[in-house]
Every structure is written in C-alpha cells, then in structure tokens.
Amino acid sequence: MEKYSEFNALIKDFIELFDTLIDVEQKKLDAVIANDIANVEESIKKEQAVILRLRGLEHQRESTQVSMDMKDLTFREILEQAPEDVSEALTPMFEELSQKVRTFQSINDNAKDAVNVKLHHIQSMLNPSAAGSKVYSASGTGSTSEETHFTNRFV
What we know:
Layout: H1 2-33, H2 37-67, H3 75-81, H4 84-126, H5 128-131, E1 135-136, E2 142-143
Antiparallel strand pairs: 1-2
C-alpha cells in the first residue's frame, strides 16, 4: 500500500495540472474566436509553462513506476496489478484523469480548427486573386464569385 501512496499523489498532481491546462486552452480558444491576438499570445505562454510542468510530472511518474517495479506499465495495467483496496481508491482518480485528458484534447482540437479557419480567412484577404477563383456549387457548376465560403464541420 505504501508504494502506491506516491503514485496516488502523482495522479492527483496530474489531475490538478490538467484542470489548469483545460482552463488555459479554453481561454486560448475564446481568444482565437474573438480575434484577440494579445490574449492568444498570453495563453500560449501560459500553456508552454504548464507543458513544462507536465513534462516534469511525466519524469516523476516514470521514476515512481521504476521504484514500484512497474516501469513499462500503463495506468490501467497498474490498477489491474494493484491490491483491491488500492485499486478501488485509484480507479475513480484514474477515470477523472482520463476524462480531463479527453476534455483537454477536445478543446485543443477545437482551438486548432479555429486557428486554421482564421488563417484561411487571413490568407484569402491577403491574396484577393484566390478569392475570385472559380467556386463550385454542390451541383458541380462553377462560378467566379467574389464571395468565398469556407466550412469546417468541427468549429
């Protein structure tokens, strides 16, 4: 049980870190949508600092697992090998961490998509000849409309 206490604390640290990362990523997404470049830059700086902390926690996790003789095991495999009382305590924390990681990935994907849409808009403004290029309708007919439309289903 004692060898799992450090691992338990480590999972709590990961959960807190991902809470912070989710908050920073959401602020970045909101800033991208609002065209607030100063806040986008500030969010990126904060995100980089949190990622450095994440790398530190990852190194700590690796050394903790080595000391537990579970070097190459995933969290799920550790839960399977842990005593039942430890597994019962760690399982809800593992599930919470998994949910936080999925939430972060979703927000991060949305932010990437929003940035790509904004970049496409900027490129079309900087290159007006591309805006007048031939545009095709759903029926396949082409026109040289000055109005362009970019659709991203993920935003």
